[in-house]
Amino acid sequence: MTTPLVSIQDLTVQFNGARRASALNQVSLELGQGEVLGLLGESGSGKSVTLRTLLRLHPERHTRTAGRIRVDGQDVLALRGRELDRYRGGTVSMVFQEPGLAFDPVYTIGQQISEAVRVHEGVDQATAAARALAMLERVQIPQARRRFDAYPHELSGGMRQRAMIALALACKPKLLLADEPTTALDATVQIQILLLLRELQRETGMSVIFVTHDIGAAVEVADRIAVMYAGRIVEQGPVGQLVRQPCHPYTRGLLAATVGHEHRGRPLEAIPGSPPDLAALPPGCSFAPRCSQASERCHRDIPPLEQQGARTLACWHPVRLLGEAA
Amino acid sequence: MNAALAPTPAPHDMGGPAQPLLIVRDLKKHFPVRSSPLDRERKFVHAVDGVNFSVPKGKTLGIVGESGCGKSTTARLVARLMPADAGELIFDGEGVEEFRGLRLKEFRRNLQMVFQDSFASLNPRLTIAETIAYGPRVHGIARADHQARELLDRVGLDPSHFAGRYPHELSGGQRQRVNIARALAFDPRLVILDEAVAALDKSVQAQVLNLLQELKAERQLTYLFISHDLHVVHYLSDYVMVMYLGQVIESGPVERIYGHPAHPYTRALLSAVPSMDPEHRTQASPLAGDPPNPINPPSGCRFRDRCPHAHAVCASATPALRDMGRHSEHLAACHLNDPASGHPEAHQEQRP
Q1: What CA–CA distance (Å, rounded) separates A22 from A279?
Q2: Which residues of A87-109 are buried (b: 16+ CB within 10 A; e: fewer)?
Q3: What are the two backbone dihedrals, phi and then psi, of residue B89, each rounded to the nearest 5 degrees?
Q4: Lower Cβ count inside 10 Å, N or C end of chain A?
Q5: B156/A contact by beta carbon, under 8 A
Q6: Which residues contact A95 (CB under 8 A, 6 or more apart)?
Q7: Alpha carbons B140 and B109: distance in angstroms, whole number
C-alpha cells in the first residue's frame, strides 16, 4: 500500500449542548485504496460519529473537532464552500440506515439521482437522466425504467436501500461510507444488499467504511475490522484473525455474547454492566468497569494503542498477546 | 433442558400438565385499507389469515418471519390488545370470553407482554417502582410496593438504587429489565415477548436472554417469543413456528426446523443468516426480492413467486399444513412434501 486514501489522526469530537459528551477520543485510522473496513461497535461507541465527521455533517456550532483527516490528499477539516460541496458526494458519499428518511419524499427517485449527477458534473438533463437510469439498473432494481419515476414511498425497504446505493455511487466516489445500511432490513433482504455492496466494490475498486453492530454482516463484507468502544478504537485487524483470535477482552466478550446454534441449552457468556456515559468517561480504560481482567492500572491509565503487523490493540491485560495471535 | 426439574404443578394449574397452556384456532385479522370512494371494492390487508397453534406448558414457542408476515399482529390478537375478526383462544382448557369460560380480566392476569420499545412502553411520569406496582394495585393486591422492590431485585436492579428513578434515567437494557419485572408482577403463566431483545446491544442482549431463561425455570413460565433474529429464536425456543404473509407455513420442534426444514421458505430464511467465517462467505442470495404485498396475496401458495420450486400446481391449489410422516409434531405447508399434490418435483423430495 502506498499513500492511504483515508488517514485519520488523533480525531477527537466533542458535542457541547445541554451537556458535554466526548463522542470520539483520539481515534486514528488508515484506509487504503480499494479496502473495505468494518467499523464494529455498540450504540454510543462513536462509529456513526466517525462517518459523519468524515463528511463534516455535524453542526459546527455545537461540535468541537480536533485532529487531522486527510482523504485523497485533501485536508477535510479545512474544506470550505464549493470545495466542501464537491467533496461531499464527489469524493466521498454515504449510505444511511433509513433510506426512507434520507430521500426527499416529494421528488421521484430518478429526479434525485439525476440532480446529483447534474450538480457534480455539469452535464445536461438528458445525460444525467440516462446516467441515473444506468445506476438503477446497476444496483439490480427490476423494471428500473418504471422505478425511475417512482416516489420513495412507493418502493419497498430493500428497493429503497438499492436506490440509496445508486444515488451514493452516481458520481463515482472514491470512498463510500455505509452507516448500518442493512440494520433496518429483513434477513433475506439484508444478505442481498450485502452481496450487492461487495459486488459493486469489486467492480469499481472504491474504498468502503462499513459501520455495523452485527459481526456477521461485517464478516461478510469487510477485509479489516476495527472495534470501537466509548469513542476509542480498542482493537483492529484483518477479519479472519480478529474473529478467530480476538485479543481485547471486549472483542472476545462481544464474540462470545453473539448467539449461535452452539449455545443452545447453556447460559450465554454476557458482558456485565452497560456502556459508559460519554459525558462522564472513567479516567482509565473505558471498558475497565465491565472487564473481568481489569487491574488498578486499568482504572487509572488509558492503555496506548500498540501495533504489531496488521493488528493494533489498546489493552493492559489482553486475552492473548498480539505476538501470539499473528 | 430446564424441564429436568419436573416442575410441581402450580395450584392454579387447571388442566394438568398435558393440556397445552394456550391453543389458538383459526385466528384471523384483516385490516381495511383506506381507499378512495371511487374504488369499487374495499381492500383489506390480510395480516393474520387462519393461524392455528398451541403452546405446551413450560415451553417456549418462537415465531419467526419477515416484517409484515403477521407475527406481531398474532401476538396482539392473543393478548387481546385488539379484537380478532375470527378465531378462538383456549387458555389451559378454558375458552376465553366464551359462555362459562374464562373471563377476559382473569385471562389478562395470566398473560403479560413485553414490547420491543422499552422506552415507549413505560410511563415517563412514574418511577419504575410505581410502574411495577401500578397494575397489581389496580387489581387490589395489598403488598404491591413491597413486591415491586422484590421484583426489581430479582431482575438485577438494586431497589435501593433504582426504585425511585424515572425511565429516562435508565439505559435500554435496564429499561427492558423493568418491563420484564412489570410483566411478572401479576405472576402470569404466559409471557409474550414481542421482539423484546431486538433493540438491545449484543452484550446487553445476552444478559437479558440469560435472565429470561432463569425466570422461566424459576416460575414455570411459558413464553411466546417473537423475533426476526433466527439465532436468538434457536437459543430460546423449544418449538418454532414460521410465518409468511399471515399464514403459518411450517412449525415443529426447534431441532427439526433448524436441522431438517421442510419448506423452501424456511430453508431460504435459515441460509440468509450471515456466515461468521470470512473464508466461507455467502456467495448467492437464497431469495430474490421483498415479501409481496399483503393486500393482494398470490393465489394458491403465497410464497410461489419467490420460490425456486414453484410450478403450476402452486398457483392453483393452496398447500395445507401436513405432518412430516414420523414426526407428527413437525408440520409444513408445501406441495413438495405431498406426493399426491401433482407437483413434478414432489416425489424427488425425500422424507428424512
Answers
A1: 6
A2: bbbbbbbbbbbbbbebbeeeebb
A3: -115, 130
A4: N
A5: no
A6: A161, A164, A165, A168, A176, A177, A178, A179, A181
A7: 12
Indicate the pairing of strand B190-194 with strand B222-226: parallel
DSSP B116-143: S-TTTTS-TTS-HHHHHHHHHHHTT-TT
Q: What are phi and psi of B147, to 5 degrees?
A: -65, -35
| Residue/partner pairs of A151-154 with CB below 8 Å, 24 or more apart | A151/A105, A151/A106, A151/A107, A151/A108, A151/A109, A152/A99, A152/A100, A152/A103, A152/A104, A152/A105, A152/A109, A153/A100, A153/A105
A&B contacts, CB < 8 Å = 127
Query: How many angstroms separate the CA atoms of B143 and B140, rounded?
Result: 9
Chain B CB within 8 Å of residue A81 CB: no
B272–A190 C-beta distance less than 8 A? yes
- Which of B203, B274, B286 lies closest to A270 in CB terms? B203
The grid coordinates of residue B1 equal 433442558
Which of A159, A191, A268 is nearest residue B209 as measured by Cβ atoms?
A268
Closest CA of chain A from B121, distance in Å: 20
Of the candidates B323, B324, B320, B314, the residue with the CA atom closest to the CA atom of residue B345 = B314
Among A50-59, A97-106, B317-326, the range scoring the smallest mean pLDDT is: B317-326
Question: Is A143 in the B-facing interface, judged by CB distances under 8 Å?
Answer: no
Do A48 and A39 touch, CB atoms closer than 8 A? no
CB contact under 8 A, B274 and A240: no
Cα B105 to Cα B80: distance, rounded to the nearest angstrom = 11
Residues of A in contact with B201 (CB under 8 A): 42-43, 213, 275
pTM above 0.90, yes or no: no
Say yes or no for a CB contact (<8 Å) between A192 and B173.
Answer: no
Of B259, B221, B251, nearest to B74 (Cα)? B251
Q: Residue B153 belongs to what H/E stretch? A: helix B144-154
Residues of B in contact with A249 (CB under 8 A): none
DSSP A12: E
Biggest alpha carbon–alpha carbon distance for chain B: 68
The C-alpha angle B329, B350, B62, rounded to 5 degrees, equals 30
Asked if A260 and B269 come within 8 Å (Cβ–Cβ), the reply is no
Are A175 and A207 in contact by the 8 Å Cβ rule? The answer is: yes
Cell for A321? Answer: 498477546
Q: Name the residue among A226, A245, A248, A221 with its Cα closest to residue A236.
A: A226
Using DSSP's 3-state secondary structure scheme, residue A221 falls into helix
- Taking a contact as any Cβ pair under 8 Å apart, which residues of chain B between 29 and 88 contact chain A? 66-67
Beta-carbon separation of A240 and B210 below 8 A:
no
Q: Is the Cβ pair B276, A243 closer than 8 Å?
A: yes
Three-state secondary structure call for residue B23: strand
pLDDT per residue, tens digit, chain B (352 aa), is 444 444 444 556 667 778 899 999 999 999 888 777 777 777 888 889 999 999 999 999 999 988 888 888 999 999 989 889 999 999 888 888 776 667 888 888 889 999 988 889 999 999 999 999 998 888 888 888 899 999 999 998 988 889 899 999 888 889 999 999 999 998 899 999 998 888 888 888 898 999 999 999 999 999 999 998 888 999 999 999 999 999 999 999 999 999 999 999 999 998 888 877 888 888 888 887 777 777 888 888 999 888 888 888 888 888 988 888 776 789 999 998 888 888 888 755 444 4
How far is residue B147's CA from residue B133's CA, in Å, rounded to a whole number?
A: 7
Neighbouring residues of A264: CB distance < 8 A, sequence distance ≥ 6 = B234, B235, B254
